[in-house]
Design brief:
With 476 residues, this protein is α/β, with parallel strands linked by helices. Helix 9 crosses helix 11. It is built from 19 helices and 14 strands. A hairpin with a 2-residue loop joins strand 6 and strand 7.
Length: 476
């Protein structure tokens, strides 16, 4: 999911998305190395730090080892293997690679034991909560990477080559600690082929959306499929409707934990009621509440439903399940009446958080790896392997041909122009995010009504506001 990245989400973004491969060194060896390192002597795997220079700002040591772990979800992990090979060739390092969806399962004990990897793509449903890592001082400050020279133009700092919002998205408590690398857009998706065959027009208003869902039902299909076991996805729809109806002020009120973020906010209630209407009118794909992200997405690929919500990792995640002529298309979330943002406005932002652990054995290598990711060369490698955009401005070589879904997302981004928005609360307050997702799950199952959803969401906000750390997170 990428819930930005869940494994599914952005997040991500919290969810289910990205990775797997064989580690070339076993954990006991790593434990031994870190024991040597912490014993004060040099580790036996060669130097971990060299002299710094303009070309080598962090002091990567030739012959040092690199330990890279990535989430193997919608983007796979071939891109990371390509990066590691390029890095080893340039720096004379030896990289070990692990692609997995079990980030917490594989890494929690390593973080606790003080021998984490050097670079981690901390994504998917089983990612380690970023706010938790930050509070326990497990994340290296990546600001030095932002201030280092760009590999493409040494006259520019890395920070000047990034899409707006990237740094804000990776900041916790005022410190830049995670590089959200994939530029993701969120919304609905549909099959261009199905719509053409049925004579349906992509809807721009919520009423038109419900009308297409009703036509789908008449034709024996579901209107909306959603990833019922991961309410992260349907939550995207609710939160997008709030943002578009209430404008950026509504987004900031939620991120800034205002007492009227949900309760007393007409836009929020209208959004939840709109989504609940799909449930009440029986326009959901039957059984979708009990499906995982991939099960539900595969049913959609089989033309069993008109729409599904997701981030732009969807196309890559579903490559094997998508018919050749499916013609995957992106649709911004349609508008409720009297919305402050236009139909073209979309949630867009950086997802897929890469971190360098504070206690990494090869921190210099980790920082240089992050800097390399922000080069045009590595960004293009990612686009080729993962069919997705990165946060590097103009970072993809024009020769790279994107698939239809990703191309339609690029077109939508251009149409949105400056009308993009993003939420920061999922990264800042993971507990609040989970509570709101849980409420959405209950709503879709008809176990609670919209007003009760609002009550629960506000309670989650009020609880997060009591965290002393909250005062360091603020959107202006």
């Amino acid at each position: 999911m990428s819930m930005a990245s869940t494994g599914e989400g952005l997040g991500r973004r919290d969810l289910i998305k990205r990775s797997a491969a064989l580690g070339l060194i076993t954990v006991p060896t790593m434990g031994f190395l870190s024991a040597c390192a912490s014993g004060g002597g040099e580790p036996t795997n060669g130097p971990s730090k060299a002299a710094t220079s303009a070309q080598n700002p962090f002091g990567v040591a030739k012959g040092s080892k690199m330990d890279v772990v990535v989430f193997k979800g919608g983007f796979g992990d071939d891109y990371a293997k390509a990066w590691e090979a390029a890095f080893d060739k340039k720096w004379g390092t030896t990289s070990s690679h692990l692609g997995t969806q079990e980030i917490t399962g594989k890494l929690q004990t390593r973080f606790n034991g003080g021998n984490p990897p050097d670079v981690v793509d901390n994504s998917g449903a089983q990612k380690i909560k970023l706010d938790v890592l930050f509070k326990s001082n497990q994340l290296a400050d990546l600001t030095p990477v932002l201030d280092a020279p760009s590999l493409d133009d040494p006259g520019k700092k890395v920070r000047d080559t990034l899409i707006a919002g990237t740094i804000e998205q990776g900041t916790q408590g005022g410190k830049f600690v995670s590089l959200n690398y994939v530029y993701t857009v969120f919304g609905f998706w549909y099959s261009g082929k199905l719509f053409k065959e049925k004579g349906w027009t992509a809807p721009k208003t919520w009423d038109e959306f419900l009308a297409v869902c009703a036509k789908a039902k008449e034709a024996g299909l579901g209107g909306l499929a959603h990833q019922g076991k991961y309410p992260y996805y349907i939550n995207v729809v609710i939160m997008d409707l709030i943002a578009k109806k209430g404008g950026l002020d509504a987004v900031k009120a939620i991120d800034n934990l205002e007492p009227n973020a949900f309760e007393g906010n007409a836009a929020a209630l209208a959004a939840v009621e709109a989504v609940y209407e799909v449930v009440e009118k029986d326009l959901l794909l039957p059984g979708t509440n009990g499906l995982t992200h991939t099960e539900s997405q595969t049913a959609w690929n089989q033309y069993k439903a008109a729409f599904i919500p997701s981030g732009s990792w969807l196309e890559n995640e579903q490559l094997k399940q998508t018919p050749e002529d499916f013609d995957m298309q992106f649709l911004p979330v349609p508008l409720l009446a009297d919305s402050k943002l236009p139909f073209e406005a979309i949630r867009a932002g950086a997802g897929e958080p890469f971190i360098v652990p504070e206690k990494a054995a090869n921190k210099a290598g980790g920082l240089e790896f992050i800097r390399s990711m922000l080069s045009r060369e590595w960004s293009t490698m990612f686009a080729q392997q993962a069919n997705s955009l990165t946060v590097v401005k103009d970072g993809v070589d024009p020769s790279v041909k994107l698939r239809p879904g990703t191309q339609s997302a690029v077109t939508a981004l251009k149409a949105a122009g400056t009308n993009t928005f993003n939420y920061l609360y999922p990264d800042w307050y993971s507990e609040m995010d989970t509570a709101i997702q849980d409420a959405s799950n209950e709503l879709m199952a008809k176990r609670i009504q919209p007003k009760e959803w609002i009550k629960r969401a506000q309670a989650a906000v009020n609880k997060a506001a009591q965290d002393p750390n909250a005062k360091n997170n603020r959107r202006s």
